[in-house]
Write a structure and sequence with these properties.
Radius of gyration: 13 Å
CATH superfamily: Creatinase/prolidase N-terminal domain
Strand content: 15-25%
Structural class: alpha/beta
Largest sheet: 5 strands, mixed
Strand order of the largest sheet: 4-3-2-1-5
Number of strands: 5
CATH class: Alpha Beta
Shape: globular
Number of helices: 4
Distance between the termini: 24 Å
Amino acid sequence: MNRLGALKQAAFEKKRFDGFAVFNWANLIYLAGVSGAVALLIPREGESTIYAYGVNYEQVKAEGKGFRVELIKRNESLMAKLAENAKKCRIKNLAVDS
């Protein structure tokens, strides 16, 4: 089982969360293998999303295999964008790493 699979099992099956948000840079690298990202949203169902600012967007897009990569534009709120995506994924119980 890979790292992301182990997290999903612990968070979704054992703890009954609907989604997991990762903000800690070390956890982002450990779970997604991507440097330069600012957040990762892992829903119970569907594709996980990595969020990156413009300066790192192309790098994250190249490294983020198996993830959807979303650009956080200048003056755009990361938390608002993440919350909107969580709502679309029907996440009601969200676990957060930090």
